[in-house]
Write a structure and sequence with these properties.
The chain has helices at 14-27, 46-55, 81-86, 110-123, 129-140, 150-159, 183-188, 209-218, 237-249, 267-272, 288-296, 307-314, 327-339, 341-357, 360-377, 381-385, and strands spanning 2-8, 33-39, 61-66, 92-96, 144-147, 166-168, 195-200, 223-228, 256-258, 276-279, 301-304, 320-322. It is α/β, with parallel strands linked by helices and 386 residues long. It has two domains: 2-172 and 360-385, Glycogen Phosphorylase B (Rossmann fold), CATH 3.40.50; 183-357, Rossmann fold. The strands form two sheets. The chain has a six-stranded parallel beta sheet, sandwiched between helices. The protein is globular. The model is unreliable at 382-386 (pLDDT under 50).
Length: 386
């Protein structure tokens, strides 16, 4: 089976990382080959989307990795998904990565945040026909839909999507190159004798860095915070400035380091230099960074108890949850998992099992089954009865 896949590709993007792992695993199957129709996360005219849509007909199945920003985002006169999808005539699979259902859970204030809340209301349930177009009609075009969490499936079912066409296939555990414990790197930061708490990934308001700082302020002086990453977009640099101000206000200048963007080759060293990894997100439909952290099996992993994180924890991954938005509970879990040897060992054993049961090879096999269902959905009923 030949598959044409539209996805962000070879850019700084979590979906691009997800797609590269999925495609590599699909290509290892005996009967599946994937041709990428690449998206560079830049603004493009509508004509480019029409051309890309036509290219999606080259395979037996068309597969779209869907994120609203890939198509000009949400404003109706800028959203190019309709012209793109209208060109696709082959059996269609869409993977939904982002949902706007539910309350806005990104903290903030002021006029800009009020405008953000108003738009969220419009794109969610309050906008009537346009909200329906974004959250139902977009995905109902597909013969089959893949979501990365049961919560995303629930959103689609509430919107009226047929249950039989929605399949939960989480992101697989990548085969990572693990680095040895890097005491030299810790020493270069002046943290050789510190307990290093690390939060890696792109810096954005929904990632909960502000809460991580609140938790750090509650911990003894020998705890330090490594923010291993930088903003993905120039528009998010203002948030980094806000974090810098918060660090100064809490008197944490000597206990926090922000690395800026790390290449894929640098990430393992920083993970290996850490004692605990944290993901205090306020919103996450699925976090590939969490799965990557578990794959390294280098330090216990703590995440906020959002729906997506709960599902990963429930699968026996060794992920520890804390009450979302509760800095005191986060600090308590950091203390426990940095000092309790038995708890750390139990977490590592679960991570090892999770890497086997949730490998990319397994996720590719399940994705291939969805492709077959998409093709079957296009077979005329009269042919099936014969």
């Amino acid at each position: 089976m030949n598959v044409s896949m539209f996805t962000s590709w070879q850019v700084k993007c979590g979906i691009a990382d997800y797609a590269s792992h999925l495609i590599a695993a699909l290509d290892q199957l005996d009967d599946t080959q994937v041709e990428v129709v690449p998206f560079d996360r830049q603004a493009h005219p509508r004509a480019d989307y029409v051309r890309w849509g036509q290219q999606m007909n080259a395979g037996d199945v068309a597969h779209i990795q869907h994120e609203f920003s890939f198509f000009g985002y949400l404003l109706p006169w800028r959203n190019h998904f309709g012209p793109f999808a209208a060109q696709i005539h082959k059996p269609l699979v869409i993977t939904q990565h982002v949902s706007f259902d539910g309350p806005l859970q990104v903290p903030g204030g002021g006029v800009k945040h009020a405008a953000w809340r108003a738009k969220w209301w419009l794109y969610n349930t309050g906008g009537g026909p346009y909200a329906r177009q974004l959250n139902k009609d977009t995905f109902d075009r597909a013969d089959q839909i893949i979501v990365l969490s049961a919560r995303l499936k629930e959103h689609l079912l509430v919107r009226g999507i047929a249950p039989g066409k929605v399949h939960v296939i989480p992101g697989g555990v990548p085969e990572v190159v693990c680095a040895p414990r890097d005491d030299a790197l810790r020493a270069s930061w002046g943290w050789a004798d510190k307990t290093v708490v690390c939060q890696f990934g792109f810096i954005a308001p929904a990632k909960g860095h502000s809460l991580a700082l609140e938790a750090l302020a509650r911990l003894p002086e020998h705890y330090v915070l490594l923010i291993a990453g930088g903003p993905r977009l120039e528009s998010q640099r203002g948030y980094v400035d806000e974090l810098t101000e918060q660090i100064a206000r809490l008197g944490l200048q000597r206990r926090v380091k922000i690395t800026g963007y790390l290449s894929a080759g640098d990430v393992p060293r920083h993970i290996a230099a850490s004692d605990v990894l944290i993901f205090p997100n306020t919103h996450a439909d699925f976090s590939y960074s969490v799965v990557t952290a578990l794959a390294h099996q280098a330090a216990p992993v703590i995440a906020s108890d959002l729906y997506s994180h709960r599902e990963i924890a429930a699968d026996g991954s060794g992920l520890t949850l804390f009450r979302a938005g509760d800095g005191a509970d986060l600090a308590e879990q950091i203390t426990r998992l940095s000092t309790d040897g038995a708890a750390r060992q139990a977490a590592f054993e679960k991570m090892a099992r999770y890497a086997v049961t949730h490998s990319w090879a397994e996720m590719a096999r399940r994705t291939r089954e969805v492709y077959a269902l998409a093709v079957e959905a296009r077979v005329p009923q009269s042919t099936v009865l014969q």
